[in-house]
């Protein structure tokens, strides 16, 4: 027992999905502290983990104890990160090791930078100039010496092409500095004169940042009101405190325009964090964050788990966006966890949106959050004029989607040399393809979902698993030849129609698969800003955040899309999305107009958009949620079971159902086959647990599942506060 312990023992958390803490001996030869990244033996392997706490009560026999092997030459994981990981693990009911893995996503960064070899052009032209070689030479002559891996990645060639050019004397090697330096932002670089509304919001935030105290502000400003300028002042105040700021964005494509605005305001670009970052930038940025050198970080939700040395502010921009919620791995909502992070670190958190979530509005109403409002657009710009086109009265005709009134409006706008945006939240050519002679519908073999035709790529795709195939020549059911017919519109089909209606206009299409990287996004932004695009046709990706001064007409092709989804937030989400799209029109001197095409012009969501009466809509929505005991008035958790064998999943679910928690304030719905009853060949069943607000839903679930063994062929995922009900 512990009386025989001679050496200091510590608990080390390993970043493994099955992992928790394990006890190790801290040998006297090593200076081991809490938060150190260390290597330890695990079975036959050597793994890296974090010294989590002292293990005073460790009762493992001395002979079974193993030594920590090494302390890595990296700054310690800050105490606040340890606390945060513990908290997230408890709240989401996921293993701590799995949460730690999100904070240790760049294993390389734990070691000092190895010297790098760069390749540069010697100006000797190779005898044989292949396309691959040409791309390499373009890159090295444009941006100078770079590592072989970087060149290979940018040029899309293998490293051997570069090595080959070096052997031929076309490229030569040079020593590269270990890493490009992190530039320091300057809060006074280009101060902006704010409007009176902006001043009062900005002053509040700046003093909140200066107080080093936790507090949440909901910054609600209509589209184009200058929320960004306001939170920039909070960031400037944070720089003054010598602390780091984090700005979270829902979509990395949005960073393009924002990066430039940061640069104008603070003199340098912020440190970026998202999935599109190359390996060396990840490593550099991660180290800059843990060493406190990164002053401003702009990132996707995963940036929340970066090991900030001295975080002093988090801004969650477009806080209502459901893409802040991660469904896979550790299911968490970055907006909610940002608030927790602020509490742990004693600093303010700003939630910014033109259409805040019902959750945040309620917190503001109850006085838990400070409610800062910007009621009008900046610089005298007015909100657009919104009109509904009743499709029952103005049918565009069979296989067409642009009604006559909208066509006329487009024509007029273009003749004034202004830009048009047509919005349809559907990728591809058509959402459904069916056989004209027997009605057979093309479905994904792995998922319970239709295949979506992408005509530009000449493929049919599943949007759930990525399965893709070509259009079959004949129907597998009735053997009819060439009988398949596209049903309904996707944006590709809308482009086709727009091209037919406006043959001389420059039309561009944007969707998440066409602007998936920040580089593609900035090319798109440049084309919009220069007027190279006259009609922009896009999905939700172009609906938010962007500021295009000359865009004055927005046409919403199918305003009803999303209303019938039936999930808890369908109406709220549709309202938010339509407001965002509406908000792209007329953001500067030329006033904007919006046309919504709808079969349901009286629907409360459509009505709220037309009259720009968000308050009434939200009051109605809140009432509905309250009477149903749904969030934010109640708590939800989902339990998702999946496996290759439908029967065994169903059997396991039935077993769980027999022990389901009961109580006056607890309802368990299910098990039921999920709406997407199969994904990637796995059959899925769902439970939905609903509790009153004052019930700890984690402990309800914990008691239910305690000691329950999940068979190895079944996966069970717990999702606290689910946003996805498919
Ligand atoms: N005080 C100011 N001085 C100069 N320009 C400003 C000021 N405030 C806002 N602007 C400009 O007004 C435009 C709209 O501002 P911004 O993009 O911050 O609005 P927003 O509230 O974030 O809008 P959205 O919710 O639609 O994204 C931008 O071009 C911005 O540069
Ligand atoms: Zn599929």
From TrEMBL:
Task performed by this protein: Initiates the restart of stalled replication forks, which reloads the replicative helicase on sites other than the origin of replication. Recognizes and binds to abandoned replication forks and remodels them to uncover a helicase loading site. Promotes assembly of the primosome at these replication forks.
Species per Swiss-Prot/TrEMBL record: Sneathiella litorea
SUPFAM superfamilies xref list: P-loop containing nucleoside triphosphate hydrolases
Lineage summary: Bacteria, Pseudomonadati, Pseudomonadota, Alphaproteobacteria, Sneathiellales
Alphabetized GO MF terms: 3'-5' DNA helicase activity; ATP binding; DNA binding; hydrolase activity; zinc ion binding
Cofactors required: Zn(2+)
NCBIfam families registered for this protein in UniProt: priA, PRK05580.2-2
Residues binding Zn(2+) 1, per UniProt: 435, 438, 475, 478
Entry binding sites for Zn(2+) 2: 444, 447, 462, 465
Domain Helicase ATP-binding span(s) in chain numbering: 208-374
Gene3D superfamilies assigned to the protein according to its UniProt record, in alphabetical order: P-loop containing nucleotide triphosphate hydrolases, PriA, 3(prime) DNA-binding domain
Cofactor: record remark: Binds 2 zinc ions per subunit.
Protein name from the UniProt record: Replication restart protein PriA
GO biological process entries: DNA recombination; DNA replication initiation; DNA replication, synthesis of primer; double-strand break repair
Family statement drawn from the similarity comment of this UniProt entry: Belongs to the helicase family. PriA subfamily.
Keywords for the protein's UniProt record, in alphabetical order: ATP-binding, DNA replication, DNA-binding, Helicase, Hydrolase, Isomerase, Metal-binding, Nucleotide-binding, Primosome, Zinc
Top-level taxon in the UniProt lineage: Bacteria
Quaternary structure and partners: Component of the replication restart primosome.
GO cellular component: primosome complex
Pfam (any one): DEAD
């Amino acid at each position: 027992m512990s009386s025989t312990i001679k050496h200091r023992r510590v608990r080390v958390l390993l970043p493994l999905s099955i992992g928790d803490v394990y006890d190790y001996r801290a040998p006297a030869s090593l200076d081991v502290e809490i938060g150190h990244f260390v290597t330890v033996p695990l079975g036959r392997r050597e793994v890296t983990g974090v010294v989590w706490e002292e293990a005073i009560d460790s009762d493992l026999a001395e002979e079974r104890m193993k030594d920590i092997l090494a302390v890595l030459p990296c700054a310690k994981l800050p105490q606040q990160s340890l606390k945060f990981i513990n908290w997230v693990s408890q709240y989401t009911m996921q293993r701590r090791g799995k949460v730690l893995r999100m904070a240790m996503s760049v294993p390389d960064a734990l070691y000092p930078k190895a010297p790098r070899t760069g390749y540069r052009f010697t100006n000797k032209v190779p005898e044989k100039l292949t396309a691959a070689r040409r791309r390499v030479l373009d890159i090295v002559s444009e941006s100078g010496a770079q590592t072989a891996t970087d060149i290979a990645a940018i040029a899309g060639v293998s490293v051997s092409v570069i090595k080959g050019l070096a052997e031929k004397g076309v490229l030569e090697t040079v020593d590269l500095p270990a890493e490009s330096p992190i530039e320091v932002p300057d809060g006074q670089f280009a101060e902006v004169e704010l409007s009176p509304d902006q001043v009062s919001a900005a002053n509040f935030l700046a003093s909140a940042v200066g107080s080093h105290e936790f507090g949440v502000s909901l910054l609600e400003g209509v589209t184009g009101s200058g929320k960004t300028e306001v939170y920039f002042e909070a960031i400037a105040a944070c720089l003054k405190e010598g602390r780091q700021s984090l700005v979270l964005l829902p979509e990395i494509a949005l960073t393009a325009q924002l990066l430039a605005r940061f640069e104008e305001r603070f003199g340098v670009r912020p440190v970026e964090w998202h999935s599109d970052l190359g390996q060396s930038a990840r490593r550099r940025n991660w180290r800059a964050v843990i060493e406190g050198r990164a002053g401003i970080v702009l990132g996707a939700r995963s940036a929340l788990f970066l090991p900030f040395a001295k975080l002093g502010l988090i801004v969650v921009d477009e806080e209502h966006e459901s893409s802040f919620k991660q469904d896979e791995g550790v299911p968490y909502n970055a907006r909610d966890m940002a608030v927790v992070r602020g509490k742990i670190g004693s600093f303010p958190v700003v939630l910014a949106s033109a259409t805040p979530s019902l959750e945040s509005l309620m917190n503001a109403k109850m006085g838990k959050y400070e409610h800062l409002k910007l009621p009008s657009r900046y610089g005298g710009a007015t909100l657009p004029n919104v009109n509904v086109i009743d499709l029952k009265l103005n049918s565009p005709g069979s296989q067409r989607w642009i009604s006559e009134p909208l066509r006329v409006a487009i024509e007029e706008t273009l003749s004034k040399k202004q830009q048009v945006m047509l919005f349809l939240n559907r990728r591809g050519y058509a959402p459904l393809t069916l056989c004209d002679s027997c009605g057979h519908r093309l479905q994904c073999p792995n998922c319970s979902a239709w295949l979506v035709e992408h005509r530009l790529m000449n493929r049919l795709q599943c949007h759930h698993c990525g399965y893709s195939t070509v259009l079959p020549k004949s129907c597998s059911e009735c053997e009819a030849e060439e009988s398949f017919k596209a049903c309904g519109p996707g944006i590709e089909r809308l482009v086709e129609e727009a091209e037919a209606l406006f043959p001389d206009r420059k039309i561009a299409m944007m969707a998440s698969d066409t602007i998936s990287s920040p580089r593609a996004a900035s090319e798109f932004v440049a084309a919009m800003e220069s007027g190279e695009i006259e009609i922009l046709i896009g999905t939700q990706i172009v609906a938010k955040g962007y500021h295009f001064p000359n865009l004055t007409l927005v046409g919403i092709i199918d305003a009803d899309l999303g209303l019938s989804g039936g999930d808890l937030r369908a109406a709220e989400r549709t309202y938010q999305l339509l407001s965002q799209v509406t908000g792209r029109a007329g953001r500067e001197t030329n006033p904007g107009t919006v046309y919504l095409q709808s079969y349901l012009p009286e629907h409360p969501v459509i009505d709220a958009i037309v009259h720009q009466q968000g308050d009434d809509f939200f009051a109605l929505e809140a009432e509905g949620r309250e009477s149903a005991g749904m969030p934010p008035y109640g708590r939800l958790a989902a339990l998702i079971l999946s496996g290759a064998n439908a029967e065994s999943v169903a059997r396991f679910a039935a077993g769980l159902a027999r022990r389901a928690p009961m109580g006056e304030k607890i309802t368990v719905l299910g098990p039921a086959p999920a709406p997407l009853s199969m994904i990637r060949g796995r059959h899925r069943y769902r439970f939905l647990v609903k509790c009153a607000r004052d019930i700890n839903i984690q402990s309800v679930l914990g008691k239910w599942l305690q000691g329950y063994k999940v068979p190895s062929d079944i996966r069970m995922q717990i999702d606290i506060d689910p946003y996805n009900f498919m």
